[in-house]
Amino acid sequence: MSVKHSMRQERLAAETLLHDEVGVYPSKGERYALSLTRTALHIQRLMPKPEGEDQRTVVALRDVAGCHAPRGCITSDTHAAYFSIYAYPRKKRKVAVGSSRTRQRLVRTFQVDGEADYAQNRAVAEKWAVAIKCLLLGIPVGSETEISPGLLPRPRRLLLLVNPQGGRGLALQHTHAHILPMISDADISFNLVQTERQNHARELVQDLSLDEWDGIVVISGDGLLYEVINGLMERPDWKEAIQKPVGILPCGSGNALAGAINFSGGFEQALTVELLLNCTLLLCHGAVEPMDLVSVTTCSGTRSFSFLSVAWGFISDVDLESEKYRHMGSARFTLGTAVRLASLRTYRGRLSYLPATDGHRPISRSITLAANGSLANIRQHAPLHRTISDMGLCEERNVVTKRNSPTSVTDTGELPSFEASPSPAFLDSDSFTFDTAPGAPPSATHSAEFTNTRQMYGPLDNLLVPLDEPVPQDWVTLEGDFVLVLAIYQTHLGADLFMAPFASFGEGLIHLFFVKAGISRAAMVRLFLAMERGSHFEYPHFTHMPVRAFRLEPLTHKGVMTVDGERVEYGPIQGQIHRRLCNLITGTPKVKMSTI
Ligand SMILES: Nc1ncnc2c1ncn2[C@@H]1O[C@H](COP(=O)(O)OP(=O)(O)OP(=O)(O)O)[C@@H](O)[C@H]1O
């Protein structure tokens, strides 16, 4: 961003859009000067006159979920009108050791009484509420804009799918305690559906009358969103269906996409309830961004659409092996990492990729690390049976769609055991070859339990050739022993694993990472610790490549591969990016954004 551009942005942010003198409710006779800018509501006490320092409160709009101007009088003053803002600022709170910050609901109600009669005061109160809502939703308003309710879209209707078993099993509790109150403040109508089993969400969205909804939001981990995206891609009308905005409110254990949304929203890295509250606030703001999907094909020819990652080796092992610590939430990965480090393995394989080129040069991404290691210069058909009205509060219920189609995937087979291998402190790194012309055809280890009878649609994979044919000439192939291979297309691999700080939702890139054999356990520990800050690029064993397509051919007989954290059949796998194929609710207005 140029200096001139950022100065203009600052000037725009500081411009006063509305200004008034108001009272408050409940009142002891106080008067306030209110000013609204594009980013904040400034509240300055006028009466009683503040002693000493000027008393000014600034409510950042990014902390505000909604604003209402109720009709009618709420006091004996029949000529006054009112509007309320619902904010969730971060407040300090005492915990067992020291203090932490958490968001708490704060309602401020202002009394508009400067005009001659109720109708005029009501018009002013409504103007304030509309202006604030427009700013929250990213609808452009300026000091010259004629502010009227006509600027606002109709209230949104969201389908919320909650996985009661996700993460630590607290999704329903969090939904009632945190999510529903906040989205009601934002005037969002919803229907809440509890998923009852694996693939329930996938089947549900296949039969959904999409016109009824402005978005589908999962209250869960990344696994449920993977089901929703693939369910949409299994519809004959996939082209339109996949345009339906999707969102995530993190209640899983990894919460990678939520970590990426939180980061793109400009919030500090957060976990658990704090991450959930940040993401719910962003959902209230509603901005939608295009997001890339990667079409992934496995050795049996099964195709699926991935929004997060394909992993092999250390990362997929930890993901699967730590399932048994699910009750621990995100700590499951820390423990899983420690356990796996104790028996660090290598995996022989062939990795091929099509480098991403910008014109003729390969795209190279660099990041700047501040002295303290932190990041610098990075941009901070069958309608559902439902009982709710468009005005909001709903009854939580299970909506079960009766389906006769034989579509259930039987991918719940037993974990294969690992090859017993020694675990030396240093692993051999001399067995790497680098090749631009691939050698022998892949050796696939097919796994019967992953057969898939679903009909998947989607765009043509024009960069890929069938898995039993050699990769095209312009691809690069590496063969050797890997500790891990990861293709990722989001900034985060978990809410606190800042894997690809430079990634963004619709850039059309797969970030391919690998760690070759030869890394010590101590270096792996340092690498994973550095990942929390996103400073792991300093490590020599860690290689990164932006690519458009990749193929991974394991030459080790047994192992685990995951797509978006879900285990898939083991064997050759390949994928290519499809730029901006779906729409993600990020809540962060960007250039050319839309709002649900
Ligand atoms: N009621 C249910 N009982 C059991 N499994 C369910 C139920 N509803 C959904 N599932 C399955 O649970 C899987 C994992 O769920 P989800 O991704 O929400 O949580 P998670 O695995 O804890 O989170 P993360 O993916 O972030 O690690 C989903 O793939 C889904 O198929």
Let me know the largest β-sheet: 12 strands, antiparallel
Rg over C-alpha atoms, rounded to the nearest angstrom? 26 Å
User: What is the oligomer described by this structure?
Assistant: single chain
Helix content: 10-25%
The global form is elongated
Mean pLDDT across the residues is 81
Structural class: alpha+beta
Strand content: 25-35%
Number of strands: 29
The first-level CATH class of the largest domain is given as Mainly Beta
Separation, N- and C-terminal Cα atoms: 27 Å
Uncertain stretches of 5 or more adjacent residues: 366-449
CATH architecture of the largest domain: Sandwich
Number of domains: 3
Q: What is CATH's topology name of the largest domain? A: Tumour Suppressor Smad4
Overview in brief:
The protein is of the alpha+beta class. Helix content is 21%, strand content 29%. Strands 14, 15, 16, 17, 22, 23, 24, 25, 26, 27, 28 and 29 form a 12-stranded antiparallel beta sheet that branches. A 7-stranded antiparallel beta sheet has the order 4-3-2-1-9-6-5.
Plain-language structure description:
Keywords: ATP-binding, Kinase, Membrane, Nucleotide-binding, Transferase. By secondary structure, the protein is α+β, with helices and mostly antiparallel strands. It has 3 domains: 14-144, PH-domain like (Roll), CATH 2.30.29.30; 157-288 and 393-404 and 585-595, 3-Layer(aba) Sandwich (Rossmann fold), CATH 3.40.50.10330; 298-364 and 429-584, Tumour Suppressor Smad4. Helices cover 21% and strands 29% of the residues. The protein has 11 helices and 29 strands. The chain has helices at residues 3-14, 118-137, 171-185, 200-206, 222-233, 238-241, 256-264, 272-285, 314-321, 331-342, 521-533; strands at 18-25, 31-36, 40-47, 56-60, 64-68, 81-87, 90-94, 99-103, 106-112, 157-162, 189-194, 215-220, 246-250, 287-298, 303-306, 309-313, 347-355, 357-358, 361-362, 368-369, 375-376, 433-435, 476-488, 510-516, 542-554, 561-563, 566-568, 573-585, 594-595. The strands form 6 sheets. Strands 14, 15, 16, 17, 22, 23, 24, 25, 26, 27, 28 and 29 form a 12-stranded antiparallel beta sheet that branches. The chain has a 7-stranded antiparallel beta sheet with strand order 4-3-2-1-9-6-5. A hairpin with a 4-residue loop joins strand 7 and strand 8. Helix 3 packs parallel to helix 8 and helix 4 (200-206) runs parallel beside helix 5. It is elongated. It starts with a helix and ends with a strand. Adenosine-5'-triphosphate binds at residues 163-167, 195-200, 220-224, 227, 252-255, 565.
